[in-house]
Design brief:
two-stranded antiparallel sheet; 15 helices
């Protein structure tokens, strides 16, 4: 500072402070996950996203998650473990270790009676995990008399000996119906009356606005979507179809102008995931149906924006954004559900058609030559190279251009990052110097 001259140091200090706040905001935007648009999604990309979730979990264990000690110890007792087993099964991974560990868990509980009766959803999720891995859900461990445990029976139509359908919460009813519809051979034709009871109980819980809630009179996005998923196998029933139609309308209206769904104060991945699963199960395209696109952002776009660099999914985009277990699990199931919808493979929870993996081929990974064409309202979305030559030429040219632009963008992104870092360091240094030597008073 020059004696007798203008004291410009305070002004420079404040301007530098404002500049730093802008730079820091920009740097935060750089590290947040980048949105993938539904219009950019291919079969290979969808598959890689789900594989990325499995690799994310393996990285946490330092090896193959399905054969890790942590996985085997927690089989049956951990919801996260059971749902990761379900995901692994849909990827075609081996699940012998999980099924053996689950049998041991069941032996322990049945040696002194049976599993608890107050939370049937625990039984139902284990049933789905075993079926996903190709196991026999009617023989999972043994009881005190040495008889095979029929998990699907004890989780559903035998469970009413201990808890009446009328006393179950909506989520228990939903997953009981989902698990019974998963594979008819495990249930047979002798229990249609129990399915009718489930349907009657579920339909009787519909709220006046067309949605569903776990408790209370205000419809909830997650529960409404979950119920649509449960009802999806019974659309030939006029009562069910009318209810689903009302739920779809309610979910469309509940979607925010941003394309996201709000729950518990946050736009979150789990709510978007449940909606994508529900829509995929009833044949509504979560990426292109106009009812679920707000200001150009589809619910699928919203879901994919929560994907993190480590392969997991965040619960919400906050200052401390990071992968979250529940969000990762539900998002992976949603991506698989959309994949199966596009490929005509039916519900993510159905194991009668295309059993044993995501793709109906000997190879688990889909043919990357397939392209998904932007066709709304559930029409045919997959075209082969032979039947879509014109579209493929356009796609290939576009992909080449995007690839070059992507490489440039990646390089430019790194350059921008280093520039931002340098500016921040220099700015902080200058501010410290000015405050120390110029005796600047802050506003």
């Amino acid at each position: 500072m020059l004696r007798g001259g203008l004291n410009i140091l305070p002004l420079l200090y404040m301007k530098m402070k404002r500049l730093l706040s802008i730079v820091l905001a920009l740097s935060l935007a750089i590290v947040l996950p980048q949105r993938i648009s539904a219009q950019e999604i291919s079969a290979a990309t969808l598959y890689e996203i789900v594989e990325g979730v499995y690799e994310y979990k393996c990285a946490q264990c330092g090896g193959d998650y399905m054969s890790s000690e942590e996985f085997c110890v927690n089989a049956g007792s951990s919801a996260n473990t059971d749902w990761y087993a379900f995901i692994a099964g849909r990827l075609g991974k081996s699940g012998d270790g999980y099924i053996d560990a689950l049998g041991t868990y069941m032996n322990k509980w049945y040696s002194s009676g049976r599993l608890g009766t107050s939370n049937p959803t625990e039984w139902e999720r284990m049933s789905l995990a075993v079926m996903s891995l190709g196991g026999d859900v009617t023989h999972v461990g043994v009881d005190a008399e040495g008889n095979s445990i029929n998990l699907i029976a004890d989780a559903t139509f035998e469970h009413d000996k201990f808890m009446a359908v009328e006393d179950m919460l909506i989520n228990g009813l939903d997953y009981a119906l989902i698990s019974m519809d998963a594979y008819d051979d495990y249930v047979g034709d002798d229990h249609s009356d129990y399915i009718d009871k489930l349907l009657d109980a579920i339909l009787g819980m519909e709220l006046v606005d067309g949605g569903f809630a776990l408790m209370g009179g205000a419809a909830d996005v997650d529960i409404t979507a979950m119920t649509v998923t449960a009802l999806s196998a019974h659309m030939d029933d006029e009562r069910v179809k009318a209810c689903v139609d009302r739920c779809i309308s309610w979910l469309s209206e509940a979607q925010r102008d941003t394309g996201y769904y709000m729950n518990c104060g946050y736009e979150n991945a789990e709510s978007c995931a449940q909606v994508v699963i529900a829509l995929s199960c009833v044949g509504v395209d979560a990426g292109f149906d106009e009812r679920f696109i707000k200001n150009g952002v589809s619910v699928l776009d919203a879901l994919l924006s929560f994907r993190m660099e480590d392969g997991g999914f965040a619960h919400a985009i906050t200052e401390s954004v990071k992968s979250n277990e529940l969000a990762t699990i539900q998002s992976a199931i949603a991506v698989m559900a959309y994949y199966r919808y596009l490929n005509g493979q039916g519900s993510i929870y159905n194991f009668e058609k295309y059993d044993g993996g995501l793709a109906d081929t000997d190879e688990t990974e889909p043919d990357s030559s397939e392209v998904f064409v932007t066709v709304p309202n559930g029409q045919e979305n997959v075209q082969s190279e032979a039947s879509a030559e014109t579209e493929l030429v356009y796609e290939e040219n576009t992909e080449q251009l995007q690839s070059v632009e992507g490489e440039e963008s990646a390089g430019n992104g790194n350059l921008v990052y280093y520039i931002v870092f340098a500016v921040v360091i220099l700015g902080i240094t200058a501010m410290v110097y000015m405050k120390k030597h110029g005796k600047v008073e802050e506003e």
